[in-house]
Design goal:
Blueprint: E1 7-8, E2 11-14, E3 20-21, H1 31-43, E4 50-54, E5 60-64, H2 66-75, E6 79-83, H3 90-97, H4 104-113, H5 117-129, H6 133-140, H7 148-155, H8 165-184, H9 191-201, H10 208-218, H11 228-240, H12 252-257
Parallel strand pairs: 3-5, 4-6
Antiparallel strand pairs: 1-2, 2-6, 4-5
Helix pairs in contact: 1-2, 4-5, 5-6, 9-11
């Protein structure tokens, strides 16, 4: 076991930068973030420590504080570090799950680096359809929207695509892309549109062929939509236009208001 450098309370101090290693899968170093940390240190050095674990080979693996390490190294300053018990790189994701340091893309990249297949599928589908990570992962789960429980599981590496999830996702995207092409000329998907369509698709009376027919003469209504509620209102108007059979009409507005889309329905 290596003898640690000078000790100050529960922290250790060193200028031996070569004894530290980055954790595989950590987000790339952002020069702008490093610059901001250096500026903050110049104003007042709070000597914030990094968190490391000690490897069998004797060096220290940085678990948290890669940007702080880079900033202090570039300034030629002491590195303050705390040695923690951590033999799993996933601990870094767990640590950052409760902080604002990492966004969902950072977690996605990390778990892909850890060779988790479901996360690789998320990245592949994002690239295939031009979707943000948040929408991609909850749609692959068959959900209309996301919430904290879903997001936390994704961050912690517990995301699993259910049986049939990929086929349902692709069917969802075919329908959504068709509608987007009709009124938005194939431009990138807008997040309010994604959410509104995902809610509509979960309505038990929704029928894609019916919506396609109505869309032929009503698509222009969608051009004025700016948020999810606008899209829900126009989807409701378009779908129900000309439907004389009340049993086939879809009360999408009430369905959304009651959050019935959160219930388990057979997707159309």
């Amino acid at each position: 076991m290596r003898n640690h450098d000078k000790k100050a309370d529960r922290e250790f101090i060193t200028k031996n930068y070569s004894q530290f290693r980055k954790t595989k899968g950590n987000r790339n170093i952002d020069p702008a973030h490093v610059k901001a940390i250096k500026k903050s240190i110049a104003a007042r050095d709070l000597k914030i420590p990094i968190f490391v674990c000690q490897e069998k080979e004797g060096f220290f693996r940085i678990r948290e504080g890669h940007h702080t390490f880079e900033a202090r190294k570039e300034l030629g300053l002491d590195i303050y570090y705390v040695v923690v018990e951590s033999d799993d790189a996933l601990d870094m994701a767990i640590y950052n799950a409760g902080r604002k340091n990492w966004n969902l893309n950072n977690f996605l990249d990390f778990h892909c680096t850890m060779n988790k297949q479901d996360y690789k599928i998320v990245k592949s589908k994002m690239q295939q359809y031009g979707l943000p990570v948040c929408e991609t992962h909850y749609l692959l789960l068959g959900k209309a929207t996301s919430h904290k429980t879903i997001t936390d599981k994704f961050k912690l590496g517990n995301f699993k695509i259910p049986a049939g999830g990929i086929a349902n996702f692709d069917d969802h995207m075919v329908q959504m892309a068709y509608i987007n092409n009709v009124f938005n000329e194939g431009n990138s998907f807008k997040r309010p549109f994604i959410r509104a369509f995902s809610i509509m698709k979960r309505h038990p009376k929704y029928d894609f062929q019916r919506f396609k027919t109505a869309l032929k003469t009503k698509a222009a209504k969608l051009l004025a939509a700016n948020n999810s509620d606008d899209y829900i209102l126009q989807f409701d108007n378009i779908y129900n236009s000309g439907l004389r059979d009340k049993n086939k009409r879809m009360n999408l507005i009430q369905f959304t208001k009651d959050r019935d889309f959160e219930k388990d329905y057979t997707l159309n």
